[in-house]
Write a structure and sequence with these properties.
The complex is a heterodimer. By secondary structure, chain A is an all-beta fold. Helices cover about 0% and strands about 45% of the residues of chain A. In chain B, a hairpin with a 6-residue loop joins strand 9 (about 90-100) and strand 10 (about 105-110). In chain B, about 0% of the residues lie in helices and about 55% in strands. In chain B, the strands form two sheets. In chain B, strands 2, 4, 5, 6, 9, 10 and 11 form a seven-stranded mixed beta sheet that branches. A four-stranded antiparallel beta sheet of chain B has the order 1-3-8-7, with no helix packed on it.
Chain lengths: ~110, ~120
């Protein structure tokens, strides 16, 4: 079954830089499909953070950035702040399963 | 600025049909090609359910046999119907708008509703 794999949790201290990985396969990221990232604050709807691997929508802090490799993507957050504590999901299209979300990574700010 | 608002029953009995509507405000539903439904079971991650366009659809394969989506341009809304629901369909249901960028098939979800909770229970 096609999946996007994310670590369940990541933590960092205020001011630090953290990286959240998202690993795909040949049927999604390896097929040339883009990755998007969403932030979900507790009790809220998801919010678009990064699209097309690296593009930031207007209004999203430049502390958030995205990168890519062959079958994986990463979200980096610099200058970690307490307000960044949230769940982060990657998303990509899969030619077998349709749109996929990763399982999500819970970011804890220590 | 486009806003989305989900509505529908909060409680559905097992084996009955779940029906939800997403009202589009601040813009026309015809201004965007694709609209989507996403759900989130309690304590779990996001799950894409399917997409609807004017005259086309794209459903998650495992839900396809139970799922129907439609667009009502006159009411500026789109809808979801999921048949024969079980407890596994209990979730917060979100509607979202797909925005096009880049290559012909490149889209991302740029606007989300606040979500509506649906519980399947007798």
């Amino acid at each position: 079954q096609s999946v996007l794999t994310q670590p369940p949790s990541v933590s960092g201290a205020p001011g630090q830089r953290v990286t959240l990985p998202c690993t795909g396969s040949s049927s999604n990221l390896g097929a040339g499909n883009d990755v998007h990232w969403y932030q979900q604050l507790p009790g809220a709807a998801p919010k678009l953070l990064i699209y097309g691997y690296t593009f930031r929508p207007s209004g999203v802090s430049d502390r958030f950035s995205g990168s890519r490799s062959a079958t994986s993507a990463s979200l980096a957050i610099t200058g970690l702040q307490a307000e960044d504590e949230a769940d982060y999901y990657c998303q990509a299209y899969d030619k077998v399963s349709g749109w996929l979300f990763g399982g999500g990574t819970k970011l804890t700010v220590l | 600025q486009v806003q989305l608002q989900e509505s529908g029953p909060g409680l559905v009995k097992p084996w009955e049909t779940l029906s939800l509507t997403c009202a589009v405000s601040g813009g026309s539903i015809s201004d965007s090609k694709w609209w989507s439904w996403v759900r989130q079971p309690p304590g779990k991650g996001l799950e894409w359910i399917g997409d609807i366009s004017h005259g086309d659809n794209n459903y998650k394969p495992s839900l396809r046999s139970r799922l129907t989506m439609s667009v009502d341009r006159s009411k500026n809304q789109f809808s979801l119907r999921l048949n024969s629901v079980t407890a596994a369909d209990t979730a917060v249901y979100y509607c979202a708008r797909w925005r096009k960028y880049g290559r012909p098939d490149d889209y991302y979800m740029d606007v989300w509703g606040k979500g509506t909770t649906v519980t399947v229970s007798s």
